[in-house]
Amino acid sequence: MGFTFRDDITRSDVAFDADGQTLSELLVSAWGAVLAVLVEHPHEIETRETRSFRLTAPDPQALLYDLLERQLYYKDSEGLVLRLDPPHLVSQERSIRCEASARGQRVAGSRLSLGTDVKAVTWYRFAVARTDGQWRATVVLDV
Q1: What does the mean pLDDT of the chain come to?
Q2: What is the CATH classification number for the domain harbouring 37?
Q3: Could you tell me the pLDDT band of residue 109, with boundaries at 50, 70 and 90?
Q4: Which of residues 33 and 2 earns the better pLDDT score?
Q5: Are 126 and 16 in contact (CB under 8 A)?
Q6: Beta bridge partners of 103
Q7: Does residue 115 contact residue 84 with C-beta atoms inside 8 Å?
Q8: What's the rounded Cα separation, in Å, for the pair 13 and 113?
């Protein structure tokens, strides 16, 4: 489980590949990649606030997109940088429900070294697939 930044997809934005043995692990990996763009040392984020949320999406690709957009929402609207706990996923007839919690702190007044501000998750080359028993995703962030 993890992520790798890529420099062969785009020059002006940030691209990464993420993976996980399970879809839940993939979601945590991708969230971690975005966090590593936002904050220079994500391990320094203190657990001061928690946000719990639910998402429902028609497929894993839409779920990952919505999850990363939620992460950016917390950053932009509340000034929070959060680490994602492994989410609980429930497959339904035509959708996937995600119940998740994320923990972290506000950027304002903190000693965190900020990285690059991410404006949005793009659909450019966005992909989620399960191959060889592993979940993989490619994501490009507009910075």
Answers
A1: 95
A2: 3.55.10.10
A3: confident
A4: 33
A5: no
A6: 50, 83
A7: no
A8: 20
Our count of domains for the chain comes to 1
Of the candidates 136, 119, 120, 118, which has an alpha carbon nearest to the alpha carbon of residue 128? Answer: 136
**Positions of E strands within 25-95:** 49-57, 80-84, 88-91
**Which tokens go with 29?**
């990996």
- Tokens standing for residue 83: 């680490």
Asked if residue 10 has pLDDT above 80, the reply is no
Q: Which domain holds residue 8?
A: 2-142
Tokens 């996937």 belong to residue:
96
With 80 as the cut, is the pLDDT of residue 11 above it?
Answer: no
Mean pLDDT of 53-77: 98
Cα-to-chain-centroid distance, residue 79: 16
pTM above 0.85, yes or no: yes
Q: What φ, ψ does residue 26 adopt, rounded to 5°?
A: -60, -45
**What crossing angle do the helices spanning 60-78 and 23-38 adopt, rounded to 10°?**
30
Max intra-chain CA distance, the chain:
46
| Structural contact between residues 135 and 57, judged by C-beta atoms closer than 8 angstroms | no
